[in-house]
Amino acid sequence: MIKQPFVNMYKILSFAAGVALCMSACKQPTKTNQPEESGKPTATVQNVNVPVFQTDSAYAYTAKQVSFGPRIPNTPAQQKCADWLIAQLKPLADTVYIQRTTVKGPKKVPLPCINIIASFNPAATQRVLLLSHWDTRPHADQDAFDRNKQLDGADDGASGVGVLIEVARQLHADKPKAGVDILLTDVEDYGISEEENSYCLGTQYWAKNPHVRGYKANYGILLDMVGGRASQFFMEGGSQQYAYGPMKMFWDVANRLGYSDYFRYENIGTSITDDHVYVNTMANIPTFDIIALQQNGNFVPHWHTANDNMTVIDKRTLQVVGQTILEVLYRQPFEY
Q1: Residue 267 CB: number of other CB atoms within 10 A?
Q2: So what's the pLDDT on residue 21?
Q3: Is pTM, for the whole model, over 0.70?
Q4: Per the CATH hierarchy, to which homologous superfamily does domain 48-261+274-331 belong?
């Protein structure tokens, strides 16, 4: 993983046109991310009933996580939130797997890590992996006033999990033909830019120790910061390299549903070190990242600040992301 030139942002790496992505691993140019000339996706769309994503539920799930306090590893809030997440998913999924381990954080600090995996339709060989981290960064290092202050992580962490719990509720009520696995990862946001691979520790552990031996999925969808007001989601560089087909399908579905203000085709020349990097390179599952960015490639202003609280969460954004996921899972999960 490259840490330069991150400009004090662990997830973003801006690159000039023609420069390889991710050093030697990314020597081929990325595909263009413009829509088809007709403006319509070419995939076969199945005529099936798609559940309606319940935005109020996703918002409530997001707020509940925040109510525990910052979900920092090795704090009471971590265990309380983990217990709650498990309690929500067990009645919904066919099987829930819980990975409890200890990972080494920056400066080799031992950190308790709790990954939670909810599996739906486990007999299906064709599968989609949905994932999001649920922990909170231990300090607001991008805050303009107090960089030692803790933050709620309402968007960065809780929003993606809130969407996925509501998706799980819909999967339980009306199972699709595809197999679906929801992976909630821990200890994603504890790292420091000075130490390579110090972020996404829960995902790294899962990639080396999957919940099912030999686990494979057709592709994965990572949700990270998917609840902010007026969010825009651009096609991230690493996602284009590893998972362009399913990502393009997802963007086409979102635009077909009328969400073009959110899911943008413009190439802003940005690659992000996030959980999907390790799913792509260690688990070998093509995975793309849905994450809010600004047009200039920077993160949204509340990223890693004390302003990342419930005031930035917008129900419309949650609905746009959640309904697109359901549309893909029920209507055309593998048509890309």
Answers
A1: 17
A2: 36
A3: yes
A4: Zn peptidases (3.40.630.10)
